[in-house]
Design a protein that fits this description.
This protein is an alpha/beta fold and about 280 residues long. Helix content is about 40%, strand content about 15%. The protein is built from eight helices and nine strands. The strands form two sheets. It has a seven-stranded parallel beta sheet, sandwiched between helices. A two-stranded antiparallel sheet has the order 8-9. The radius of gyration is 19 Å and the shape is globular.
């Protein structure tokens, strides 16, 4: 367990006020790290600050260059170095067919899922270098970086772009002792993707058969992978991804029938999730 002791380390989590980001921030804080979150939502930011009075909770819209520069300045003034950056922000935003997206909607999806990852990473690199060797970046991406997804084509392409960026930066930053890896979750139960809303009641009875390990993800599942990747246990791991997906990617379409037999034949009529199109 000493390898998961982050005492004396500094950690920044973007979108750290709720869902996966909150779980990551709390996991690092529990492991002894000095934690900062970048969070645009005032209520979430205030709630985190109240629960963690020693943490730094910064109002930041990571899609805005000025906000990100101010975030880097505040972090530098408080901590002077950055041991772990968790790029957690992302959102599918507009679930609709590709040719139904407006130019503005395309730009929004690209910015929130890829542009801001590059912006935050670039802004924080000097602070990561100040903590190197041994500092690291963890990008929270998606299983959709590794498979096709209808009606979220731009989102999936952006997640694949993050995976490519991770591999390329892993090579550039390796000589400096900075590692970068991805955590790629399957659907995870968060306020952003609330499963009680997303899955119609008539489809919930067989949910335990949809994922090989019998359930959807929880924020703590992703936080555990991020903690590992940032720790000395992963000292020789860079440029790769951990698929935190309950076996979904390995299943590649296989599910179990209500009787427990494996099949690749669809059994849900209509949308399993509430996605238009």
């Amino acid at each position: 367990m000493s390898a998961l002791d982050f005492s004396g380390k500094t950690v920044l989590v973007t979108g750290g006020g709720g869902g996966i980001g909150r779980a990551c921030a709390e996991a690092f804080a529990k492991a002894g790290a000095s934690v900062a979150i970048a969070e645009i939502d005032e209520a979430l930011r205030a709630d985190f600050a109240a629960a963690h009075p020693d943490a730094l909770a910064v109002r930041c819209d990571v899609t805005k260059a000025a906000d990100v520069r101010a975030l880097a300045d505040q972090f530098r003034d408080r901590f002077s170095r950055l041991d772990v950056l968790v790029n957690n922000v992302g959102h599918f935003l507009h679930a609709k067919p590709f040719d139904a997206l407006s130019e503005e909607e395309v730009d929004q999806v690209v910015e929130i899922n890829f542009g801001q990852v590059m912006r935050v990473t670039r802004a924080m690199l000097p602070l990561l270098r100040a903590a190197a060797p041994g500092s690291s970046i963890v990008n929270v991406t998606s299983i959709e970086a590794y498979r096709g997804i209808p009606n979220c084509a731009v989102y999936g392409a952006c997640k694949a772009a993050v995976a490519g960026l991770t591999k390329c930066l892993a090579l550039e930053l390796a000589p400096e002792g900075i590692r970068i890896n991805d955590v790629a979750p399957e659907t995870t139960d968060t306020p952003q993707v609330a499963l009680d809303y997303m899955i119609p009641p008539e489809n919930r009875v067989h949910m335990d058969k949809w994922i090989p390990l019998g359930r959807f993800g929880r924020p703590d599942d992703i936080a555990g992978a991020a903690l590992y990747l940032a720790s000395p246990l992963a000292a020789w791991v860079t440029g790769t991804a951990i698929h935190v997906d309950g076996g979904a990617l390995a299943a590649a379409g296989w599910t179990r029938t209500p009787e427990g037999q494996w099949t690749v034949v669809p059994m849900v009529s209509g949308n399993g999730l509430r996605i238009p199109g």
